[in-house]
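FAQ: What does a ligand-bound record look like?

Like this one, built around iron/sulfur cluster:
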Amino acid sequence: MAEVYKEKIFEKAPHVDFVVGPNDIAKIPFIIKSLIVDKNSSLTNDLFEKKFWETDGEERPEDIYHTGYYENEKHAYVIISEGCSNLCSYCVVPYVRGPLKNRNYKSIIKEIEEAIEIGREEITLLGQNVNAYYYEDVDFVELVELVNSIKGLKNFSFITSHPKDTTLRLFKVMAECEKLKKYLHLPVQSGSNRILELMNRQYTIEFYLDLVEKYRKFVKGGILTTDIIVGFPSETEEDFYNTVRIVQTVKFDAAYIFKYSARPYTHAASFKDDVPLKEKEKRHQFILQLQKSISQLKKTSDVILT
Ligand code: SF4
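The answer part, i.e. the structure of the complex:
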């Protein structure tokens, strides 16, 4: 949002004191310092009355990936890449975060080792599309193997995967890596090939179902979750019921379901948002309830099996 709206944020939210884009966050201490100096170093309520924005940075400095901010005493999120080059037609990420930028795998390993040294046992590797990771001669599957071999690490997972970059090779490595959680978040978004094409997702529903089959074959007992958007422009009842069928067929462990709304700068924002809000809500509720009953049933059968 900082990258897109820049100084306009001050109009929308006058209480905001300064705005910094993702590639400029290293400048925050200097901005605060300069603003404090402006007020003769005295901390008062109107300290930041001078508005300030920085959103022009090209390259996020390497040390800034290493936030040192971890969720709790046992777990750390570690960024492996920033931005995304996929240009799904509804998504603002490529515009606000820029194209995919991969972090040096040596820095990723170093950060994980340091996190372990201070007591973290679990790691989540983070990226908008982790499967597209590539740095020098190391791709995502090799990175997973490298992380799995780190001494002292108890377990790790990754999020998020794009179906078009998810491979059988990954599933085989997932099955072999004893520290890797058997968990895959694989957003399907829609069960209709027509809508998937309009979304520019670059896979068909047949391809997606084939991936799911392979995942379940190789990663025994693996958890599978997804994202779904309902009410995408021009989504008909038939398109929607194709999505319903996917939910019924795949039986996800959980699904995050969203009602479509246009995002600025995206290609889909130029489409006619023609599914009425009431209809979007109806479809949203329908899939929500369906998924709830599936998740509940799966939990019950897990309990019976264990
Ligand atoms: S939805 Fe995900 S894969 Fe598609 S452009 Fe956005 S971040 Fe990239």
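Follow-up question: can I read anything off the structure? Yes, for example: The pocket of iron/sulfur cluster is lined by residues 84, 86-88, 91, 93-94, 128-129, 162 (CB under 6 Å).
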